[in-house]
Design a protein that fits this description.
about 110 residues; mainly alpha; 4 helices
Length: about 110
């Protein structure tokens, strides 16, 4: 890769990430009064995070069963108000236990 290509790629990535962040500051001068738009903008980060995380969960394990178990445990622990560390350890433990159980079952089949 040449240095010119690398600099052009970095400049393009910087522009592409900066423009969507700067446009709202430039285009919207006053406070947004619409309850619908404010509500929509409030939930956008959560929707984006979920849309990136959930497919990665089901693609990161050996089995969709273990991924589902970890996902379910994470949801239950999160809804019960547990800390992020507790949720992560619980989901990881669930995935590990289900994958070990599936390996044992495959030996007997």
């Amino acid at each position: 890769m040449s240095d010119g290509y690398l600099l052009a790629a970095i400049a393009t990535m910087a522009a592409v990430t900066y423009i969507p962040r700067a446009l709202p500051l430039i285009l919207v001068r006053g406070k947004i009064e619409s309850h619908f738009v404010r509500s929509f903008l409030y939930y956008v980060p959560y929707a984006v995070l979920a849309s990136m995380t959930v497919p990665a969960i089901f693609g990161a394990t050996d089995s969709p069963w273990s991924a589902g178990a970890g996902f379910l445990i994470a949801i239950v622990l999160g809804l019960r108000g547990k800390s992020l560390l507790t949720v992560a350890i619980g989901a990881t433990a669930a995935v590990w236990l289900v994958e070990q159980a599936l390996r044992v079952l495959l030996v007997f089949i």
